[in-house]
Structure formats: structure tokens, C-alpha cells
């Protein structure tokens, strides 16, 4: 690693000069995959010598001996609601709009629990520590900006996906509707007329939904922080965000679009530079997979058991008939879909390390952003079985890029699954395409980890990065769209036209009275 030397030197100097800040990570999204991304950021900072304290609702899978983790779980009742909602979602088709709608109604516990957390006695403790910075994992939780205001510290937002509407608004980044597909639209830019119309309609609808969710956030903020008059309003606190980390790398993933300097790309932060040693059983299983191995994981939100048994049986029949070995993520070891010498069931998997293994030939995934990123990083082709939310568009984008095939989980049959698996395993074009992506994805001036350390310490050194903010953050809708200026121009134009009309009329009348006008109009006028 010759190129890395100056960078390492530079980093060493930076680390030495910022000697361990106290950083609070507030990661209250009730989703294990979000937590993996946020914890990877926290871990990177702990490794750089910072004193990181994390508050989460789930026990994190990624961790570090020096991170102080405070887990404040949701109540049993809330847990039940979330689980029911998740399995309901697993049994139907879900768009981003229906998912947001659900978050506003039946599943609002995902937001409310993040509000309840703030009043928990264990959370109140954090106000006793003098922090230097807060990193907030974003999940419709704007109201938590009150914590940073109360601690009087700068804020960095961490988002587990490519930049989207809310993150654009935090940073004043332009949301380009005519050529950047939003999270609800699947398209490869440039978009034709119909796609652009679809994207605009969805954009407006998303904007409406997000503003409804923001009003909810404002109500919660008022409730939690409203009685402390020394604190700013939520809209003021929002203007104090220094920068946002987004889990993306547009140069390799697209779409190419402008990003303001406060939007920092850390795509692949959760991927290890070097794979860790695998647990013994998995290592042996993979090593003896001379024909190659398949990794199957349908994610961490949906329990395998909430997928229809018929579908699970179809998957099992196809996989047990393969020559390749299969590692299947399955939560209940007593109740597996069936036993077969080529299938190893595991409750929890070091997914990244398995994907890094040279014998891993294919990844069957629910198309969560995290898993897709890891497979793309390691150049492993995929068969996607998306379930809800952004998974559907992730899967379609993956297929469009040529890294594998996407099937609809609810309608797969033995034939369709078997056909897709054979195609991706036998046709080399998928492996080649994802291999090419992998090379582009790793080719950066700053690795994701270096970017996290550099920009976090940048914000620490300058005690917030307001100078980095786009002026858009401080402008309202009228100013941003120059509506007042346009209104003035139109008013002047209208005035000029009215004046001109008056002048013309005046001159006309003058001329008429002097020289007996002969036009029809004036004749008519003279009749009476
Ligand atoms: C590290 O953070 C914890 C809070 O989690 C705090 O109690 C402790 O004092 C901090 N250590 C230093 C050296 O500041
Ligand atoms: C904004 O952040 C700075 C640190 O960058 C902090 O001192 C200040 O109190 C914050 N102000 C508000 C309104 O949150």
C-alpha cells in the first residue's frame, strides 16, 4: 500500500492534534441495518482515539471496546406492534409511499419510541457529560436535534443511504427532479417524458409526506424541549447542522449530480478493509465448497418465519437440489425449512466476511442497501428477493446495473428461482459487471473511514461548520425561488404596459381631435 503512506501520515497528525473528543452518537432507529451503518461510523471514530458514547434502542452488532453503549429498548408493547407491522409488510407489496403512510399511522411507534427515549431516566444521564459533538442517525427524528441544542454542540447527520429529500434539505443540496430519480422512482437517467412525470409526481407527494412528518416532529420537539426557553425552535436547530454523511458513492453508483460540500459521501463505511477470521464452522463449510457457495439472507427486519411457508419450501427445494453449498440466515434453529447436507443454517452471520470469501459465488438477498453494498464491494453477483421500502428500488437498480436478477418474493416459484440462480451462476456477464463496479467503488482519494475521521475532526476543530453550509439552508421558499424578485419584475412589466396604454390612448385622442379621425371606431363614436 504505497499510496497510503502520505495519507496515513496526514491522518496521524490530525488524530494527534484533536486528542480524543467526547462524541455522542444518537442512533435510535429501530432497524438493525441502520444501526450497522451508524455503528460503523462510531467504531471508526473510536479507532481514531475518540471517546464515543452511543445511545440506541437495539443492542448493536458492530461495536468496539472503547464505545460506551447505552441501550434503551422499546417497551414490549411497542416491540409487538413493530413486529406485527413488519410481518404485515412482508406479506404484501409496499411502495415507498405506502411505507411512509404506514409510518404516519399504524407504525408511528417507530417515531414515537424515538421520542419516548428522550424522557427515559437513563437517557437524561447523558446531559451530565460534556460532549463536543453529536452524530444523529437520521430516521424521521428531527426533534432529537433538541438534544444537541441542549448540549450546545455541533451536529453531524448520518444517513444510511444515498442523499434523499430530507438530507438535501438539511444541507441545502439541490434536489434535481428532472434527472435524479427519488427513492420512489426506479429509472436509469436520463429519464424520458413519462419517467420524469412520474418522478415529479412522486417528488411532490414525498415532499407533502415529509412535511406532514416534519409537523409531527415539531409537535414532539415542542413537547420535549418547548418549556426550556433558552433552546432554539426546531427550524432554528435544523439550521445548525454542520454536515451530513451519506452512505453513497455517486461516481460508481450514480446518478451523477451536484453535492454541496456539507454532503459527505462515506459509502461502504460498514465494509471492513480486511475481512475478519470467520467462525470455525462457517470457515470449514466455505473451504470445502469447492463448487462454490451461496449466501442467503433476507435481512434483519423480517423474521424468516414471517415469510409464507410455501415460499420458504420452494426456496428450500431449489437450494437443496444444487451442487453448490448454501449458508442460509435463519433465526430459529429448531424449526428449519428442512435439512440437506449442502445447507448450513445460521442465526447470525458475518455477512461481509462471507461475501469476501473467494468461494462465495452468489448472494441471495432481500436487497437492503447494506447487503447490496457489501456484495458490490466484494464483486459477488446477486439474486434479489425484495420485500418492502427501498428494497424494491434497490433490487431493480441492481438488476439494471447488470449485477444480477431481481424476483418478486411473493410470486416466486421453484421454476423462476431455479432459472434465475442458474442464469446468474452460469452467465459470466453478471460477475464481470459487478467486478468492474467493485474496482470503481474502491478507487477514491479518501476511503470511507478516512472521510469519517477527517470531516468529523474538521467539525470539531472549527467548533461546527456553519461556513460550510449552503446559503439555501437560511433561505425561505420565496427567497430560494426568487419569487419576490420575479414578482417585482412582473409588477414593473404590468405597470409599464398600463402606462404605455395610457400614453398611446392619450396621443391617439390628441391626434383624433386635431385631424378628424377617419377610422371606423371614431366614426362610430361620433354618431351620437
Ligand atoms: C467518555 O464518555 C463517558 C460518557 O459515556 C464519560 O463518562 C467519560 O468521562 C468520558 N471520558 C473522558 C476521558 O472524557
Ligand atoms: C449551534 O452549534 C454551535 C456549535 O457549532 C453551538 O455552540 C450552538 O449552541 C448551536 N446553536 C443552536 C441554536 O443550536
From TrEMBL:
Belongs to the UDP-glycosyltransferase family. The keyword Ubl conjugation does not apply. One of its GO terms (molecular function) is UDP-glycosyltransferase activity. Residues 1-20 form the signal peptide. InterPro entries: UDP-glycosyltransferase (IPR050271), UDP_glucos_trans (IPR002213). SUPFAM superfamilies: UDP-Glycosyltransferase/glycogen phosphorylase (SSF53756). It comes from Drosophila ananassae. The keyword Membrane applies. The chain crosses the membrane at residues 485-504. It comes from the Eukaryota. Coiled coil: none annotated. Pfam families: UDPGT (PF00201). This is Uncharacterized protein. Keywords: Glycosyltransferase, Membrane, Signal, Transferase, Transmembrane, Transmembrane helix.
Amino acid at each position: 500500500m504505497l499510496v497510503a503512506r502520505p495519507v496515513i501520515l496526514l491522518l496521524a497528525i490530525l488524530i494527534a492534534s484533536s486528542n480524543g473528543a467526547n462524541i455522542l452518537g444518537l442512533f435510535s432507529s429501530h432497524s438493525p441495518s441502520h444501526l450497522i451503518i451508524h455503528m460503523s461510523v462510531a467504531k471508526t471514530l473510536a479507532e481514531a482515539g475518540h471517546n464515543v458514547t452511543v445511545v440506541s434502542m437495539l443492542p448493536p452488532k458492530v461495536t468496539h471496546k472503547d464505545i460506551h453503549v447505552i441501550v434503551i429498548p422499546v417497551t414490549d408493547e411497542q416491540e409487538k406492534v413493530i413486529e406485527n407491522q413488519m410481518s404485515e409488510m412482508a406479506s404484501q407489496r409496499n411502495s415507498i409511499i405506502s411505507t411512509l403512510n404506514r409510518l404516519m399511522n399504524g407504525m408511528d411507534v417507530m417515531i414515537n419510541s424515538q421520542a419516548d427515549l428522550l424522557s427515559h431516566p437513563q437517557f437524561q444521564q447523558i446531559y451530565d457529560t460534556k460532549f463536543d459533538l453529536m452524530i444523529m442517525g437520521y430516521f424521521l427524528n428531527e426533534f432529537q436535534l433538541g438534544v444537541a441544542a441542549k448540549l450546545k454542540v455541533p451536529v453531524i447527520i448520518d444517513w444510511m443511504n444515498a442523499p434523499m429529500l430530507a438530507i438535501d434539505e438539511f444541507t441545502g443540496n439541490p434536489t434535481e427532479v428532472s434527472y435524479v430519480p427519488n427513492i420512489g422512482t426506479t429509472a436509469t437517467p436520463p429519464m424520458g417524458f413519462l419517467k420524469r412525470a412520474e418522478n415529479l409526481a412522486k417528488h411532490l407527494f414525498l415532499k407533502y409526506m415529509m412535511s406532514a412528518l416534519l409537523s409531527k416532529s415539531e409537535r414532539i420537539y415542542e413537547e420535549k424541549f418547548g418549556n426550556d426557553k433558552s433552546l432554539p425552535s426546531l427550524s432554528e436547530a435544523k439550521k445548525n447542522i454542520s454536515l451530513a454523511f451519506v452512505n453513497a458513492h455517486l461516481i460508481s453508483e450514480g446518478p451523477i449530480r451536484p453535492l454541496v460540500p456539507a454532503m459527505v459521501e462515506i459509502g461502504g463505511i460498514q465494509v471492513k478493509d480486511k475481512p475478519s477470521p470467520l467462525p470455525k464452522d462457517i470457515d470449514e463449510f466455505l473451504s470445502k465448497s469447492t463448487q462454490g457457495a451461496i449466501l442467503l439472507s433476507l435481512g434483519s427486519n423480517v423474521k424468516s418465519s414471517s415469510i409464507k411457508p410455501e415460499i420458504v419450501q420452494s426456496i428450500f427445494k431449489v437450494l437443496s437440489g444444487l451442487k453448490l453449498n448454501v449458508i442460509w440466515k435463519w433465526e430459529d434453529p429448531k424449526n428449519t425449512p428442512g435439512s440437506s447436507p449442502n445447507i448450513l443454517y445460521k442465526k447470525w452471520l458475518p455477512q461481509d466476511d462471507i461475501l469476501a470469501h473467494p468461494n462465495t459465488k452468489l448472494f441471495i438477498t432481500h436487497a437492503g442497501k447494506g447487503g447490496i453494498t457489501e456484495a458490490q464491494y466484494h464483486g459477488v453477483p446477486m439474486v434479489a428477493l425484495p420485500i418492502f421500502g427501498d428494497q424494491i428500488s434497490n433490487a431493480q437498480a441492481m438488476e439494471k446495473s447488470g449485477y444480477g436478477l431481481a424476483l418478486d418474493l411473493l410470486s416466486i416459484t421453484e421454476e423462476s428461482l431455479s432459472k434465475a440462480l442458474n442464469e446468474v451462476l452460469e452467465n459470466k456477464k453478471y460477475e464481470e459487471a459487478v467486478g468492474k463496479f467493485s474496482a470503481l467503488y474502491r478507487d477514491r482519494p479518501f476511503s470511507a473511514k478516512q472521510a469519517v475521521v477527517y470531516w468529523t475532526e474538521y467539525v470539531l476543530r472549527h467548533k461546527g461548520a456553519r461556513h460550510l453550509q449552503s446559503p439555501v439552508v437560511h433561505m425561505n421558499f420565496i427567497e430560494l425561488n426568487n419569487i419576490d424578485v420575479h414578482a417585482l419584475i412582473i409588477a414593473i412589466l404590468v405597470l409599464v404596459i398600463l402606462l404605455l396604454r395610457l400614453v398611446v390612448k392619450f396621443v391617439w385622442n390628441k391626434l383624433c381631435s386635431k385631424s378628424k379621425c377617419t377610422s371606423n371606431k371614431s366614426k362610430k363614436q361620433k354618431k351620437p
